[in-house]
Structures are given as C-alpha cells and as structure tokens.
Amino acid sequence: MIRKVVMPAAGQTTDVATVTKINVSVGDSVKKGDILLEVETDKAVLPIESFAKGFVTEIYVSEFDKVDAGSPLLSIGDKDDLNKATVPEKMTASEPDVKDADEEDDFIPVMPEKKSEAPAAVTIMPAEPSAHGAVKAMPNAKKLAAEAGIALEGVTPSNGQFIKASDVMLAIGEKNKNIPEPEKTIPTARMRNTLARRLDESAKIPTFTMTVKADPTAADLLCASGEGIGRVHLLMLALAKLTERYPLLRVRFEGGVQKTTENAVIGLGVSAENGTVSASVTDPIALGIKKTALECNKCLVNIGKGDLSCVGQASVTVFDVTCYGLESLVPPVMIPETSSFGLAGDSSVMTVTGIFDARIFECNTAASVMADLRSLIEQPALMIL
Amino acid sequence: MKKFDVLIIGGGPGGSSAAMSLAKAGRAVCLFEGENIGGTCLNVGCIPTKYLLDRACALEKIRKCTKEGILRGAGEFSWKRIQVGRENTVVRLRAGLEASLRACGVVTVAEKATLKEGLKVICNGEEYCADDIIIATGSSPAAKVLSDSPFTDSTGGLSQRKLPERLLIVGGGVIGLELASAYRSFGSEVTVTELADNILGSALPAAARLLKSKLEARGIKFFCGTKLYKIEKSEAGITAETSSGDFVADAVIMANGRRPRLDGIDAVALGLKLNERGGIAVDGRMKTNLPHVYAIGDATGRVMLAHAAYADASVAAANILGKNEVSDTRIMPQCIYTYPMLASVGMTVADAERLGIPVSVGISDFRANGMAVAESEEGCVFAVVDKRNGRNLGFTVVGPSACELIGMASVAVERGYSADDWRHLTVAHPTLSESIKDAVLAANADI
Question: If both were cysteines, with which of A223, A302, B281, B392 could B412 make a disulfide (CB 3.0 to 4.6 Å apart)?
Fold first, then answer.
C-alpha cells in the first residue's frame, strides 16, 4: 500500500517551508524514524521523519522547493509497489517477497580482523569411545597411530581423558627404541659433538658424486616473484617430487637397517653457531614453493637467533652456495641420510652435485635421479603430474 | 480429459527446453511443475550458487587490491544484501523463463502431476492425455532434511540467514567445494570432510590436487577418508561425529550428492525400468522401456548437469518430432565454480588408459601467461592428446575463467583438433586462451 508523506504544519506564524535537503532516492528502503528530508521554516530547520517502513516509491519535491502544509512530499510503499513503479510488466509475474531488504544490515569487514588467538576454525574434538568401538583420540593421534601401526587401545592418554599425538609418539618410541624421539631443541655443546661425530662417520662411508648443469630460466622466473623464493627452494621441491619415483631418496640407513619416512622431508643445510644443521621442511610438494620458501626463510631467521626448533631429521639435505658464484659444491652426506645435494652456479647455470651412499644407491639409479632432477628444474610444471 | 500432443512432467532446464522446442515445432505441449519453473538449477542450484561465487570473487579481488596497497581500506559487506541479490537474480531469470514458455504457447500447470498407464497424467483431479510423455522430474539432495535436522542440504546451504562463523561441509564433490569456496570468501572458517581418499574422484588427479592445494592455501581444511557417524545439536554448536574425530560447527551442510527424484512416477506400478543409479533407464534416444514415454536430465541419474539435461531434451524432442537423433555425452564439459575454478572436458589420462589409447599430457602454467599474471591469478591448463596422431582428447583447466575457457577446449575435443590445427589458429594476445594452445603444443612436443 502506498502512503504519502505530507508537509506538516510547521509553525504558528507560517505554513510555508523550503525543502533544504532530500536524504532519500526512489527505491531506497526506509524504516520508521529515518530522516527523509529537511525543511526550513522561518523559525528553524525541521527534519521530516518516516512514519513507516518500506520503500520510497516517488518523490514529489526538489531541493529549494517551497511547500505548503499538507502538500505531498514523497510516497512510501512496499516492495510490490516499488516493482509496479520500476520493473517492466512482464517481469512482475512472480517478483520476490524479499523480506530481509528492509531490515537493519549487519555489515561484515571484508578484511578478516586479526584475532589475538587462533581463528575460530571448526573445532575438532577427540572422538567419543564406545559408540563405534573407537578409542577417544585426537584426529592427528589416530592418523599417527595408523601410520605407525600402533593400536590405540594400547596407548595411555597422558591427560587421562583422550589420546594425543604426543602419547602416540611415546608409544612408538617404546615399540621401537631405534627410532629416536624427534628432538625439538639441541643443546649447543652436544650439538657440536654430534655434528662432529656424524661428519666423521660420514667420511668413512663409501660415496660417489654426480653433477648436472641445468638451465636456470624457469627457476629464475619463479624467483622473480619477489616472495623470497630462491633456486634452492625449487631444488627442494624437485627432490621431494622425485622421492615419489625414487623411494630410496627417503631412506635413512642406521645400524644396518634401512628406514624410510612416509613423507618427503627435505633439509636445508644451514650454518649455525656450532656447525651446520639441517632445517627440515616436511612435504614441500603439498606446501608449494611459496610456503616452502617461507618456512626456510623463517628457519634461517630463527637459527640465526639460536632457536633450533625447526631443525629435524630429513630424508635428504641440500646445501646452497649459489650466492658465491662457485662452479660446484660436493656436500657431505648427513648420515644416517643416504644422499645430499649441493647447489652452486651463477646467473647462467644451476649446478647440482649429488653425493650418494654407495651402499644404498646403484650408479644408474643415481644417474637417473640426477637427469630427472634437471628436467624438473628446467620444467617445474612437470612437478604437478 | 484434456488432450495434448506432448505432456512434460517437470519444468527444470530439461523439461522447459523440451517444451519450448516442441511448442515451436507446432506441438500442443502441457508442462507440469509442482514447485518453481526452472527446477533445481535456476532456483536452488547453479544460478544462485553462481551469484554467491561471483560476489565471493569480488571480495577476493578487493582483498588482493587492499593487500597490494591499491585500496586504502577494504570496507564492509552485507551478507543480507548478498542474500537479497541472490533471490532477486533467481526471480528475474524465473520470470524470464515463464515469459518465454508463455510466448511459445506452452500450457503450464503449477501443480504436481502423477504419471498413469496409457500415456495419461493426473493433476489436481484432472486427467490429461497425449501421444508422447517426457519425464523430467529432476533430482533432490541425497540427505533428507527434516524440520528438526541439525544439518541442512545444499538448498539450505545457499540461504543461510546468518553467516556461519564455523561451517562444516560433508562431501568434497562439486557442490561441497563450491559452497566451501564461497563461504570461505565471505569469512567463514570452513572444513570439508570427504568419504573418499581424495576430493573430486573423477577429475584429473593432478588437477584435483592443484585445486585442493589452492583451496587449502585459502584456509579451507580438508579431511579425506572420513566417515560420518552422527550429527547432533550440542551446547557448543552442532557436533558431527566422524572417523576423524568430532567436529563442532555453527552450521553443517550435507553435500553428499543427489539422487534422481521420481515424484509422481510409480515405476513399479507402471512397469517403468530403472537403472543401477535409481534413475529411469533410457536408450540413446532418451526412450524408456514404455512406448512413447521419454525421460531426460537428472531423473535418468546419468550426468546430473543442467547442460546435460538440455542435450537430453533436444534429443527427446527431435525423436518425438520424428527425427532419428542419438544422444552423445562424450563431450560433456564439467565446471566447478570455486576460486580458483576447475573445468574439464573430454577424457582424463585414466579414461584414455581404460580405452587403451596412448596419451601425452601437455601442461601450460598460467604463470607464463601475461593475462593471468596481470590479473594476479594462478593455475594450469592440462591437455590430453592422442600420442598416435596428436588429436585433442581432453582438457582440464584450473584457474581464472576456467569455465569459460573450457568452451574453446570443447570445440577442439569435439572436432578432434591436432597440433597443426592449433598452430594455424591465431589466439589473441594477451588472453588466458593462449594457455590452451600452449598446453596442446607442449603435449605435442613429446610426440
């Protein structure tokens, strides 16, 4: 129903007023109390409020018009009235009854607000026991247990309520003492000793090296994105990709036993205060090159500050000396890893030298790895396949 | 009894387009629709989803410009206005379709109809008969939503009154991913669970992985290989009990597929043969086992896409008009309107391998495409070509405007273009289409 808003009797001395401002246009939704327009009498400026909610269907006056008391100013109707006024006849067959349009809007910021704690993601809680025979455990604990072949029933929850990943890690450790608990922080002195011992052992194992030269055009195109991506990150991704075809690259050889990790963990050799450590990135393929670069760069900063939390056990480690413009680098094998890769070269070439534990790698396998590595570096798109 | 040449049960994309083709050819057509003309696609499917996704993409673009410092502030948006716009878009298109049907002379009955033996239909107590009948009853979500259900289906998922802060979507197929992508852009924290080990099982695995990684980068969490046990309202919100643990969310959308809908069709009583998907069994001419009864679109449970229904409708109408046409579903583009989009046509590597065709795959990365770089968009085009003769067998595009690019790719597959055809085709520069050509040429470089 269309209702007209008329000029009220403005004062005792005059019934004529001037329209000074019109706040609405035809089609606007208004609610009771909204100021539709302002009129000026000889005494004051008066706001004309809406007495109803609805849509402005027509405006009869213009700014600076003089209006008498009782003159229509504008009309307010509902959505259908508005459609009659503005929508062509054939489109009105079943025009919507959009109820929400005239209610107050609750605007949401386009950029998410930065919250002090983690975002309110869908909360994940441990599954309840009994109903389906499942033990109460966190999803990551279940995944870890399944991967390690540990029955959840045999794992004791440290909090007495549900099993966490750390509980499963503990159980894995008990099951197989040979797999060391991943160390979060390595004390400096011990680190120096460990590194020295390992390098010493490393020198005693039989190795052979191979070098490929790759065209850096594609790699440098990626580096040009300005997101902290370097040639070495592409090499890390390429190696991670190759672990699918050559699972030997994931083998760690310790105490005469070959162990392989589920995911490709690629280490980046970083010089720390007490020697070279391996900053490891798990599954760079899943992370993508940007995140891999980000992770590595974060690690570099942290290691520089003495925080070694990102140092871990890798499947293979890469060493990057590109910035020195050297011809090649033969890296050490970071035993119990069984291969390492050294990256060198200059603006026109990427030189990658692989050093392989001869007890694990056949010469032709290693040659095939190196040739594939060159293909992936030169055509990064192949990594998607 | 009212007599027509053709009766059509269901006014979705298939039913409506068949009705118009037949009416234009001079047949007296009566179309029965118990709900809204336009069916799932127009009212609660493709069209409203696309409205949401378009606005979602606009927000993503604004975010990009803000991060780049082009915009000083990103401003605020109104979820309510988006919902109003979505409804208005649907109404506008529906009014247009209703007008087109009227203009063609199709008689529309806005009531549910029941198919009877002997080419008869009962509607609102009245009997209708015809020489031919087309069943186009469509499909409905597999999840049944009751008034007190703690979850909603894709229809309810489109019209959430309040933007859910935490949203759980059960099902990592096309519908689930599109809703996940849109709601993530509007700011919801979105988690998707999928029963299978991967999302989009039938897509090219490399493309599905690429899409998943892009969606994950936007903050959508995926739990594949996850079985759903129970959903119930809890103090914390709505709790879904699954094999990957319990998820607590403000809204849960079941997007676990759609089933053929046979409202008003008593297949057993009519002796109508159904197929293994629970849809109506048809031959290549869209004929059912009952003489002069045809079935098209989602009701057949074959390819549940609106453009497949249009193709079916065209074949059914042609056969009713005495032409001998057979449906060809080989070239059936599939589009997923996520951000970024995924679109495909023709064969994947696995499809070709099943047929024993040796293939070569060419990849063109949008990072090497000037237009995509200018638009700050990423993705890839994958071209599958026959290794023996270089003919194009299929394409998958992940990235900007993928659903538009796939049109060009469809022509190449349909016509069996070779590398030589592409070499002689000049593609405008800079356009995203150049990547389609580059991918084909890359595939042929291997041959």
Answer: B392
